[in-house]
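dumping this here so i dont lose it
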């Protein structure tokens, strides 16, 4: 079976971090149990109150607030940029220290060997660079037919050429971009990192359902980030129109991906589909994602990345694990970090919030709920 890698591009398309793997030509057998939910997952009762912060923009006709309230509002608006910034750097620092501890501990985990994946297809968004590129390379080596969904056709072709040479034989995202919009008019972090993936997955869902079988579930893998732990979902201002903070917008898009994955898994399990959805946190990885950070941080990264950051190959390992590991067969609704199931932020388990985000996202991309 030849190893094939192809690039599919749509200029300006809003795609996000994702890898979808679907077995080809799988027939359906008699009634089978639905995918197992992730054992690490704690579900909240449907009646749990919303914990996502609701933020309302004031319209010109709205009554003026009392002076004290106006003062509070002004203070909030002043803090709307530095607070998310500090939170994102704080969580980044914690992850880096955790990675360093792992690196310094003299333990030699065996490099996992995964079964060949001949006859299966994977779509990796953002597969031309960074973590996505390493994912494509590994999946192609395992014999999968890989489709790179990317931003630029030439970069996609270049990635295909490099992989074919090297092997001889998802993950689109942006971070901390200045306030700007996708072609479809969505705030870029929310549109590209989250909504694009939401729409792509929904458009592929029927195909994934047809392809999954009891023994070979189709797998949807979404790439989030530790920043989701400090993210706030502003349901009434998902596009950060009231106040924009690049750090807040990035963290919100990554929290949205976790909420979306859990809701998706819930829906898939409810109708007995042989499709699983999991979400991955790659850690802090030395890629071009940091091109919009403050120059001081860029210099610090340039000097210390060899010690503190994961390589793109290391960063891709959990996505590959989620895509092909036999241990993950039929398991969905997990947050995976370092190839292990772990707990995501509490707010991500809020079922009411998951549902409301899903409904809102359907409205935004124009599909039925
Ligand atoms: N690096 C980290 O430390 C880290 C940590 C946590 C999570 N992540 C997540 O991991 C994912 C991959 O990031 P990375 O570190 O590998 O970054 P990267 O090296 O910058 O790769 C991002 C990829 O996304 C593509 N992309 C950007 N806009 C796109 C669009 N509109 N349509 C299609 N593709 C688009 C980029 O293509 P162009 O360059 O051509 O635009 C690039 O190939 C992201 O979702 C990121 O949030 C990364």
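and the seq i came up w/
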């Amino acid at each position: 079976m030849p190893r094939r890698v192809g690039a599919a591009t749509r200029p300006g398309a809003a795609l996000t971090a994702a890898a979808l793997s679907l077995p080809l030509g799988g027939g359906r057998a008699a009634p089978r149990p639905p995918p197992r939910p992730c054992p690490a997952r704690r579900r909240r009762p449907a009646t749990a109150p919303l914990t996502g912060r609701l933020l309302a923009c004031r319209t010109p006709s709205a009554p003026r607030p009392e002076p004290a309230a106006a003062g509070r509002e002004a203070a909030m608006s002043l803090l709307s940029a530095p607070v998310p910034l500090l939170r994102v750097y704080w969580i980044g620092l914690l992850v880096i220290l955790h990675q360093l501890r792992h690196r310094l501990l003299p333990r030699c985990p065996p490099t996992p060997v995964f079964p060949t994946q001949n006859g299966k297809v994977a779509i990796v968004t953002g597969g031309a660079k960074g973590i996505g590129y390493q994912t494509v390379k590994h999946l192609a080596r395992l014999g999968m037919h890989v489709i790179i969904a990317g931003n630029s056709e030439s970069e996609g072709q270049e990635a295909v050429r490099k992989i074919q040479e090297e092997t001889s034989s998802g993950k689109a995202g942006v971070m901390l971009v200045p306030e700007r919009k996708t072609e479809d008019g969505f705030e870029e972090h929310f549109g590209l990192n989250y909504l694009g993936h939401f729409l792509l997955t929904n458009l592929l869902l029927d195909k994934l359902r047809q392809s999954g079988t009891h023994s070979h579930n189709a797998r949807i893998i979404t790439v989030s980030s530790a920043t989701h732990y400090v993210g706030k979902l502003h349901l009434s201002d998902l596009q950060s129109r009231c106040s924009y903070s690049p750090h807040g917008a990035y963290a919100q898009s990554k929290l949205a991906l976790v909420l979306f994955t859990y809701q998706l898994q819930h829906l898939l399990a409810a109708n007995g589909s042989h499709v699983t959805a999991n979400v991955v946190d790659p850690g802090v990885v030395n890629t071009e994602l940091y091109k919009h950070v403050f120059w001081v941080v860029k210099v610090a990264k340039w000097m210390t990345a060899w010690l503190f950051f994961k390589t793109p190959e290391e960063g891709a390992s959990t996505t590959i694990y989620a895509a092909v590991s036999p241990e993950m067969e039929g398991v969905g609704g997990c947050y995976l970090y370092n190839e292990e199931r772990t707990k995501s932020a509490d707010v991500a388990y809020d079922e009411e919030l998951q549902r409301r985000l899903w409904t809102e996202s359907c409205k935004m991309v124009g599909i039925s709920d």
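The chain has one domain: 4-55+79-365.
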